[in-house]
Design a protein that fits this description.
4 strands, two-stranded antiparallel ribbon, two-stranded antiparallel sheet, mainly alpha, 289 residues, 11 helices, disordered C terminus, 73% helix
């Protein structure tokens, strides 16, 4: 029973990472109708920047995370700025553009940090906590707490602020939003910046859990993308639920099937999507192609 609950906590913590990645995918898609295929590589850049400032310059982990969020936020703005001339003109070229940005980011990471990767020490004591007889890694609880705060803040931003409402208006009707004076380019840039910031948060948090390397963007990007699809692509609550579900599935599959866990996770994911193609929260997406 103890192993069962420990697996749940571990699965939820990595699932919170997947949820942050999925939220970045869904936010950009919800606003622009675009799948940002560079998103996984932005996660990787965020992990490298956070770990570099934390390990090399000895800055506090929280400060390193903020720096990583700012850096990747700027990367998101640059990507949107380059793609903006293609908006509502050549959707396929926009998709290819995001793939190109992903390749460039991975190449830059290899040039700057090398291809060997690094292990990031935990910023909190490694001694596990004893909660009702269950020994839980302290850092897992830190990840869950930070991810929960980020999720709540994003939901409040989208639902309670004028800028968040404007971003959703752009997603629902591009022409109507433009007609009432909403600056569509600015809304899209903010969506990309927030999505990239979420990617940096996910990358920085996952550093002490996994091995930081140029290839990690592919793994986290695929899992985050799957979580967004499972929850209902374009749905922020769906991204959260989908991420946690993939994390739990990942945790239990790793315990039962070891080296075949990835295969099991995606077989179950495929079965779920075949049963409900629109995801858990139904189809809440936009199509601006």
């Amino acid at each position: 029973m103890q192993v069962f609950f420990q697996t749940i906590v571990g699965g939820l913590s990595i699932g919170a990472i997947y949820a942050l990645v999925a939220m970045g995918f869904s936010l950009v898609y919800r606003t622009m109708g675009l799948v940002n295929f560079a998103h996984g590589n932005v996660v990787m850049i965020g992990a490298y920047v956070a770990s570099t400032f934390y390990m090399t310059t000895q800055l506090p982990f929280a400060v390193s995370m903020v720096i990583a969020i700012v850096v990747t936020g700027l990367i998101g703005v640059v990507i949107e700025w380059v793609l903006r001339p293609l908006e509502n003109r050549d959707f396929d070229l926009m998709l290819i553009g995001t793939i190109g940005f992903g390749i460039v980011l991975e190449a830059l990471a290899t040039i700057i940090w090398g291809a060997t990767g690094r292990a990031v020490p935990s910023p909190v004591p490694a001694e596990p906590l004893n909660l009702l007889g269950i020994r839980v890694r302290t850092y897992n609880l830190v990840v869950l707490g930070i991810a929960a705060v980020a999720m709540i803040l994003l939901m409040l931003f989208l639902q309670r602020t004028k800028r968040g409402s404007a971003m959703q208006a752009v997603a629902m009707d591009y022409e109507a939003a433009t007609a009432v004076g909403i600056h569509v380019g600015r809304s899209n840039a903010i969506a990309f910046a927030i999505g990239a910031g979420l990617a940096a948060l996910a990358g920085g948090l996952v550093g002490p859990l996994l091995y930081v390397s140029p290839a990690m963007g592919g793994t986290l990007g695929i899992k985050g993308f799957a979580a967004a699809i499972l929850g209902g692509f374009g749905s922020i609550p769906g991204a959260i639920v989908g991420g946690l579900a993939i994390g739990l599935l990942d945790g239990f599959a790793a315990g039962q099937f070891q080296g075949y866990s990835e295969v099991v996770v995606f077989l179950v994911f495929t079965a779920l999507i075949m049963i409900r193609p629109t995801g858990i929260f139904g189809e809440r997406t936009v199509n601006r192609a």
